[in-house]
Amino acid sequence: MNEANFDLVVVGGGAAGFNAALSCRARYPEKRVVLVDQEPEVGYYRTLLPMFMAGKLPEEKLFFWRPGEGMGLEVRTNVKVRSLDRQAKRLTLESGETLGYQCLILAPGGRPVVPPVFERSVTPDGVFPVRSLGVAREIKAWLLAHRDIVVLGGGLVGSKTSVFLRLAGFSVTLVEREAHILPTVLSANTARPLQRHLENMGVRVCTGTTIDRFKADAAGAVKAVRLATGEWVPCGTFLVGIGSTPDVGFIRETDLMRDGELVVSTTLQTVDPAIFAIGDAVAIQTPDGARAHPWTWPQAVAQGKLAGTNAFSASPRPLKRTTRVNAQNISGVPLMILGGPGVGSSIEARPGPGEGVWREFFLDDSRIVGGALVGDIAGAGPLHFTMANAEDVSQRVAGLLAPRTRAFRPSTWTRLGQSYRARNFAVKESTPC
Amino acid sequence: MKVIAVHVDRCTGCKTCELFCATERGSEGKTLLKAVQETPLPQARVRVEGGDGVSVPLQCRHCLDAPCLDACLTGALARDEETGMVWVKDDRCIGCWTCVMFCPYGVIYPWAERKMALKCDRCMHMESSACVDVCPTRALEIVEINQLGEVFAEKRRSAASVAAAVAGKGGAVVLDLAK
Ligand SMILES: Cc1cc2nc3c(=O)[nH]c(=O)nc-3n(C[C@H](O)[C@H](O)[C@H](O)COP(=O)(O)OP(=O)(O)OC[C@H]3O[C@@H](n4cnc5c(N)ncnc54)[C@H](O)[C@@H]3O)c2cc1C
Question: Which of A337, A367, B77, B112 has the fewest CB atoms within 10 Å, counting from its CB?
């Protein structure tokens, strides 16, 4: 049996794993690093797939790395990890080959959740999860002849996919089980203007229902799906975006898991200090004992870079932020999501001015814990960091809801741990204007 | 690394920097007269903010550990290796505004009409920076970041005389446009 040994093995070549491998190479050029991924291609922007599928982005713009660009990195694609032996410090691949490691970074991301309607039957053609480049290519090709689309799941991926496809001229029906779109991150108030905007674009939005049956044609391709209301919606393409679940099957038998989750500390280490885990696959145990699940692209990148430098460090550094924030431009309507409400958090909101504008915060003990800005994103950056720094905002809520300026108090600027702080010279008291 | 420093005490809030930044970097015509007639209206990468008697031109600080670089979903934001500046590759920016949300200083500006994030890159590909050239009070200055300490020392030395001069004019700031 084939056996190879490395200083660092990275499992998963998404945003998290790729950045981990690159930052480790940059920091420790003498280390032998290998990155393995089950997909045929790695180093692409998953976030751009909806635009790509809709035919609005040339394929070359999807990639941030191409084979041959090396950077001293050994990349193996089409390689699936089957199991992990912690004692022997060894991974076994589907091929039977083994990879020994000194340090291991797990970045397997998530895999798409399968809707119950397909759980006990053969999935017809024309049904696709929105997650990988391989499938996105299939979708793009399939859409040419199947322009009536039903998208299941009104979360971020489903909404974004619907918008790009609609903009490209496809007929789109978006189905969301809860009472409004983006139910886990938006309140009904902030979701309402967005939902209206989608409808004005020509997306049919069906909330409070799901798909319970489907029909396929003689060739085995989907031709209609049934809403729980009993209505049949004809469609040639059925896209699934109802979330993802950590792809951690290959370590389920190890004792790295806690209550079914792959938990890491803020230094991104698992219970085994030689094993790091990052990205959409993990839960981060914060110092206050809570578990954060910041499954976003910016987090995957930041965690990857940190894990890569922490890998061989005697004093690993903690992650600066665990916020799960998200920004989208829903065809002209800017949207900033700070996070869903916590249990018992209070709400401060400001509708308008103007149609479709809503700014809202969830507060817990005078600290912002979530909220959203729809239509007016002034001050979004400083606001995000006000939340991330857990600043007391009791005296500032009105100003944050309706900021006079786009940047806030200088104190926010100077508390960020940046190497180059505010580059302004001090204001003198006698400054006249 | 060369950066734009701001002398807050010299800024009068006139917004000349905004006008000329928008004209030079955002317009087709490159003159103020042509720029104001363009649609969409050219936007500036520096914004004068303030109130309560204090105004300050804000632009990108090119943080060493820049959160916007990690946040970009499309590969549009990059750091120029030679100058150290963080800049936006216009052709890759789709205007999702994720970087806007990850700028702690609020100095990445969404330009909705052009679906493009705007930020200061110190006009790194030009001979000099538009805003610095036009500032009538020399509130903006290009400095080498390692020499900031010296600038601060010079500032402290001159602070007393500036304060005295200002007080002597009854609080009015003298703009010496000839300098
Ligand atoms: C369509 C879409 C749009 C999105 N839009 C946004 C957005 O606008 N903003 C935002 O913040 N986030 C967005 N996201 C989420 C973002 O893409 C993810 O948070 C991010 O990609 C997570 O990166 P990751 O490296 O943890 O996981 P992934 O990118 O999922 O990478 C994991 C990799 O590991 C591989 N792998 C898994 N198991 C194994 C194994 N056993 N052996 C070998 N390889 C394995 C997988 O094949 C995969 O390539 C979007 C996601 C999708 C799907």
Answer: B112
Domains of chain A: 3-111+245-310 (3.50.50.60), 114-243 (3.50.50.60), 326-414 (3.30.390.30)
Most A CBs within 10 Å, among B100, B144, B147, B157, to test the A interface = B100
B114 and B79 within one domain:
yes
The pair of three-digit structure tokens given for residue A295, joined into one six-digit string: 């499954």
Provide the domain count of chain B: 2
ipTM confidence score: 0.91
The crossing angle, in degrees rounded to 10, of helices A156-167 and A188-201 is 20
pLDDT value at residue B159: 63
Q: Are A112 and A131 in contact (CB under 8 A)?
A: yes
Cβ–ligand 1 contact at A54 (below 6 Å) = no
Structure tokens at A327: 């920004």
- Among A44, A47, A99, A306, the mutation site with the greatest number of ligand 1 atoms within 8 A of its Cβ is A47
CA distance A62 to A359: 33
Q: Is residue B48 part of a domain?
A: yes
Question: Smallest Cα–Cα separation from A185: which of A378, A362, A319?
Answer: A362
Which ligand 1 atom minimizes the distance to the CA of A48?
3
Residue B163, pLDDT score? 54
CA B49 to CA B28: how far, in whole Å? Answer: 26
Note the residue count of chain A: 433
Cα A258 to middle of ligand 1, angstroms: 22
Ligand 1 proximity of A302 Cβ (cutoff 6 Å): no
Tens digit of each residue's pLDDT (9 = 90 or more) over A369-419 = 999 999 999 999 999 999 999 999 999 999 899 886 543 333 333 333 332
Q: Which residues does A109 contact at the CB level (< 8 Å), separation at least 6?
A: A12, A14, A16, A244, A246, A247, A279, A280, A281
Residue B170 has pLDDT above 60, yes or no: no
Cβ-based neighbours of A274, under 8 Å, separated by 6 or more: A89, A101, A102, A103, A104
Q: Which residues contact B97 (CB under 8 A, 6 or more apart)?
A: A327, A328, A329, A334, A336, A377, A380, B110, B117
Asked if A382's CB is within 8 angstroms of B104's CB, the reply is yes
Tokens matching residue A336: 């900033």
- B55 and B17 in a common domain: yes
On whether both B42 and B128 belong to a single domain, the answer is yes
CB pairs under 8 A between A and B: 158
Q: How far is the CA of B143 from the centre of ligand 1 (A)?
A: 41
What is the dihedral sign for C-alpha A51, A56, A59, A64? negative
CA dist., res. B64 & res. B31, Å (int): 34
C-alpha closest to that of A110 among A1, A271, A245, A300: A245
Q: How far is A60 from chain B (nearest CA, A)?
A: 11
Give B28→chain A minimum CA distance, Å.
23
Q: Which domain holds residue B93?
A: 60-119
Pairing between β-strand A367-374 and β-strand A358-364 as defined by DSSP bridges: antiparallel
Residue B155 domain-assigned (yes or no): no
Q: Could you tell me which of A276, A274, A273, A280 has the C-alpha nearest to residue A301?
A: A280
Same domain, B80 and B94: yes
Tell me if A292 sits within 8 A of A322, measured CB to CB: yes
